[in-house]
Every structure is written in structure tokens, then in C-alpha cells.
Amino acid sequence: MADTPWCGDGASGSRLYLQSGQFTSTIKTSLSVNSIDSGSRDCAFDGTNTPWIGTESNKMYLQSGQFSSTIKDSQAETASGTVDPFGISFDGTNTPWSGDSGTPKLFLQSGQFSATLKTSRDVSGIDSSPNGVSYDGLNSCTPWCGAVNDKLYVQSGQFSATLKTSTSITAIDGNIRGISWDGVNTPWTGADADKLYLQSGQFSATLKDSEDVSAIEDQMHGIDTNNFNGRMGIASAFIPKVMMF
């Protein structure tokens, strides 16, 4: 079963968490990143390492594994004109991220992380506070969430102007902060109730599961799944058994 990375920057400082499954109350591990950036806003998993984003230094970070204290790389984002990066993911090649300062946009950064910005998409007409982004490799779509309308969105491709679908989650939590995709369902976080949520599909109104993490962290911001192959739509490799006679 896949586990759930998420991050927060509340009373315990800026930390990355790895929650067992989707969702049990077991915290498998956590790592303080307060000395690196005290405003951790979102994290992802690329199959090997942990990209995350911080608002104090306006940087994207690549943390070794899940989670060692080694920073493999970092990239300042102030050059893009966005000083409030809020969400980050990985699509197998490039780094999608979102920001809501100036013109609210979804960004696609080349690799992990070069200074090249491949493309961006103004989403101010949809929601002026994009707070999280992911990537659905199976359908080549971009799930993201907006804090003004408190909605989950699916944008076609990376990034066309076509909005495929959206669903309001204000009845569940009125302060959406992060989103991902696990190949079947949509994990997201809400700061009003300090909970991790698992929404059925992309997106039905069915809430499959939720987990109260207020006792662990009171300022949660981002979420992902470490089922990278599922999120990318990659079938598990078939390994034939060797028969011994």
C-alpha cells in the first residue's frame, strides 16, 4: 500500500511527514526542515526523492529520499515574478508548481530543477489562489486546487486552457491547501478541520476517507502519494517466477 507524504509549518515548525497508507493515524517518519525554510507549503514524491516548496526563501527543494536530511538541489523562484509558490509535483520529467502572488498561475519548470520555465498558464479567471498542483500521467491532465472557490480542478494537459471538471468541497472543508492523484483517487488537505481527505476518482462528490491530524500539525499545507507509478499510469512490471524442478 502506498503512503502519504504531506507537510506543515505550524507550532512544531516546518516539517515533512510520511503518513502510513491512505490514511492510518501512524506517522512513519517526519523531518524538520525549519533550518532550510520555515514556510514549507507543499511536497511531492518523484519515485526516488522528495520535491517540496518553501515560501520564506521562495524556493523549490529536492530532498533526498523519504526523508533524509540531504538537500540534493534547490531553485529560487523569484525570477518568475511569483513570490508565493504554494504547490509542487513531478510528472516524470518536469516539475509542475503553482503560485498565487501577482498573476495566479500554474507553472511547468524544466527538469528537477533547471532555471528554464517551459510554460505557464494564467488561472486567475478560474481561481485567484491556486494552492496545490499534481499530475495525472494516465490521462495527461493536471489536478490542482484553488483556495478562493475551495474547489478541486482538473486542467487538460500541461497546461491547456481547457478546464475538464471541478468540484466544490466547501461542505467538507472551507480552506483547501494541497492536492495529488494516486492513480485512482484524489488525496487533498483542508486547513479548517486540519484533515487529510481522500476523494473518490477525479472528481466525484464521494469522500472515501479522512484523517484528523490536528494533534500532529495545526498548519498543514500539501499532500502527495508515494505511489509514483500509479500517479503516472505506469503498470507494475511483471516479474516471472523461476520454476525449480
Give a topology summary.
Layout (H helix, E strand, L loop, with lengths): L3 E5 L6 E5 L7 E6 L7 E4 L6 E5 L4 E5 L7 E6 L8 E4 L6 E5 L5 E5 L7 E6 L7 E4 L7 E6 L4 E6 L6 E6 L7 E4 L6 E5 L4 E5 L7 E6 L7 E4 L4 H5 L13
Antiparallel strand pairs: 1-2, 1-20, 2-3, 4-5, 5-6, 6-7, 8-9, 9-10, 10-11, 12-13, 13-14, 14-15, 16-17, 17-18, 18-19
Give a description of the structure.
The protein is mostly beta strands. It has a single domain (4-232), classed as Neuraminidase, CATH 2.120.10. It contains 1 helix and 20 strands. The protein has a 4-stranded antiparallel beta sheet, with no helix packed on it. A hairpin with a 4-residue loop joins strand 13 (141-146) and strand 14 (151-156). The longest helix is centred in the last third of the chain and has 5 residues, at 228-232.
Fold-level CATH name: Neuraminidase
- Cα-to-Cα separation, first versus last residue: 33 Å
Order of helices and strands: EEEEEEEEEEEEEEEEEEEEH
Strand content: 35-45%
CATH class call: Mainly Beta
Strand order of the largest sheet: 3-2-1-20
Number of domains: 1
Structural class: mainly beta
Name the CATH superfamily assignment.
Answer: TolB, C-terminal domain
CATH architecture assignment: 6 Propeller
What general form does the structure show? Answer: globular
Largest sheet geometry: 4 strands, antiparallel
Q: Total number of helical segments?
A: 1
Helix content: under 10%
Rg calc: 17 Å
* Beta-strand segment tally: 20
Give the key terms.
20 strands, mainly beta, Neuraminidase, disordered C terminus, globular, 42% strand, single chain, 2% helix, 245 residues, four-stranded antiparallel sheet
